[in-house]
Amino acid sequence: MTDRIREFLRTRTDDGPVLVVDLDVVRDNYNAFAKALPDTRVFYAVKANPAPEVLSLLASLGSCFDTASVAEIEMALAAGATADRISYGNTIKKERDIARAYQYGVRLFAVDCQAEVEKVARVAPGSKVFCRILCDGAGAEWPLSRKFGCEPQMAVDVLEHAHRLGLSAHGISFHVGSQQRDPKAWDKALASAAAIFRESADRGISLSMVNLGGGFPTKYLKKVPGVKTYGATIFQALRKHFGNRIPDTIIEPGRGMVGNAGVIETEVVLVSKKSETDKVRWVYLDIGKFGGLAETMDESIRYAIKTPRDGAPLEPCVLAGPTCDSADVMYEKEPYLLPVSLEIGDKLLIEGTGAYTATYSAVAFNGFPPLKTIHI
């Protein structure tokens, strides 16, 4: 937590959970990514935190933007980005949304099957397309499913189809899994990308770009390598698989760009047990899965939590949110160790919450308002 966030919370007088984001940390993170991979363009994943303050800052620093919808495209444009700095990276798009993006000037689209290629060809003629391939996501704390991407051997046919329909078969993309703590995870995906480049060339199609995706982590409870380590390791893999003919590359950091910039302040609403002999306490907060902590689902993301009673003896606790929904339980499979002296009314600080919190917050579920967010 930065001194600026600490000072803001010290003087705060209003009620309810709040996310505070320090924009200076976002600036430092962008500069770190730009320095770690100097020949790679940064396409910030808007979905991680689409706040206008974040987008405007990144646009002013020269960032490009990975968007998942027309609304996110409009957000990036409103923040000062030009259309040539925007990628429509969702592989699942309505044809009318592709047309709208094309009207805005967007010319870079993700695909993962021939049907999606045909939609782009009909309403965004001449555009560049890149085909997303599947990755196993080993080593990621939030592995991705098979929802996006195709098997690598299918990608060549998809790109050839795009080429024959008059589109520019631009390259390959992949995602090694969110919160990927192994810098070597990119190696296997780049081997697949290089093979696709070679087979495409044999068919007369010259690919020129590899989208290295996201996956760059932020620090929660476990230590993670620095951005510099990721940059060096990825560059080594590029040289290994592409030799001296390294393609254009882009990255799509989201969590790694804004995660460590935010802290949520939350209040203990209730501390209880389910029986007199229960060794685990239940700690209910005024924020839960529906208030912005959706990534605690399956306990994949375990946030660092600071309390005003740190240093006191600890005991296991189940953490839960305030809503009348039985799914609003965050840490039960592996209870969280919190001070025995924790009481109703105590304010807790949930660190590393700048990404995928406010953007996941429900609109008035059970009457609770969306997560209040402050940018300083």
From TrEMBL:
The keyword Lyase applies. One of its GO terms (biological process) is putrescine biosynthetic process from arginine, via ornithine. GO terms for molecular function: ornithine decarboxylase activity. It holds the Pfam family Orn_Arg_deC_N. InterPro entries: Ala_racemase/Decarboxylase_C, De-COase2_N, De-COase2_pyr-phos_BS, Orn/DAP/Arg_de-COase, Orn_de-COase, PLP-binding_barrel. Pathway: Amine and polyamine biosynthesis; putrescine biosynthesis via L-ornithine pathway; putrescine from L-ornithine: step 1/1. Residues 25-258 form the Orn/DAP/Arg decarboxylase 2 N-terminal domain. The modification N6-(pyridoxal phosphate)lysine is found at residue 47. The active site is at residue 324. The keyword Lyase applies. It comes from the Bacteria. GO terms for cellular component: cytoplasm. This is ornithine decarboxylase. It comes from Pseudorhodoplanes sinuspersici.
